[in-house]
Amino acid sequence: MPRMRFIQAINQALVEEMERDPMTILIGEDVEASIFGDTRGLLDRFGADRVRNTPISEQALTGISVGAAACGRRVILHMMFSNFIYTGFDAIANQMAKLRLMSGGQVTLPITVIASYGGGRATAAQHSDTPFSLLMNLAGVEVVVPSTPGNAKGLMKSAIRSDNPTFFLEPGGRGGDVGEIPDGDHVTPLGEARTMREGSDLSIITMGSMTRMTLQAATRLESELGVSAEVLDLQSLVPLDKAAILASVSKSGRAIVVDESRDACSVASHVAAILADEGFARLKAPVQRITVPDTAMPYAPSVELPLMPNAERIVIAAKALFP
Fold first, then answer.
1. What pLDDT sits at residue 118?
2. What pTM was computed for the model?
3. Residue 83, C-beta contacts closer than 8 angstroms, at least 6 positions apart
4. Active site residue 127
């Protein structure tokens, strides 16, 4: 299997899907210049009819995406930062998420929205949010969160091929991560979690930017405490693989959920609720959540970094589960 950077894997998926379907177009702020590198070379390859910059108006570009998709295009919309979802939210919440239902299935909206999320890079409050729960709660859009170059490519291809609006949320600052890419037409199915590390004593459930750090914490738990920790990467938040979550915790009886969202109404909160509702009898201890406090992300790294989930917080939470 070839190895490539995270951002190169996304770029390769975009190339392959735009070659596969000539009705697929790419629009967004500075997609021609490719500020992040994931759209590099697409303008030269596919031309200005299919790759277009938009004005710096998120309301306009989300509305354009809905209209183009309703007219038969398969749209890839690059919004750069996930905070910009907020300024384009009317067309997302009231159109993308609802038109298929409101039209009785006569309108499909195959839109893939790409946005970078997360803190830890001193990009300050307006460029550092992790809006997982905001999108999950819409009930009408799919949400995927890659953690490696391999599933970045696979999830991107699945998102573009989906006939539903799908948010592909890139973990910020991870574009240079290198990993293996499976050969051929590699597609990661939506709604399937992936076990990254087998274990029997503890289930650590995570996603996206938190996965690498969670694997490091699991290795520490094995060496320092003798705890065999399983790491489950959710990959897809909508649809969510509840069966995989319950199966893992049924085996271990203990769970920690690691999520870069703010704590209130987070993915971690939702997973904990699922375990309480459907897996309570199998739990040997309360579910632990490792999240970000309910505050805006500060600019200064000395203040920002302590707010982020880290391996030390996971180890401390695990120790509490094994008194």
1. 94
2. 0.96
3. 126, 127, 128, 129, 131
4. yes
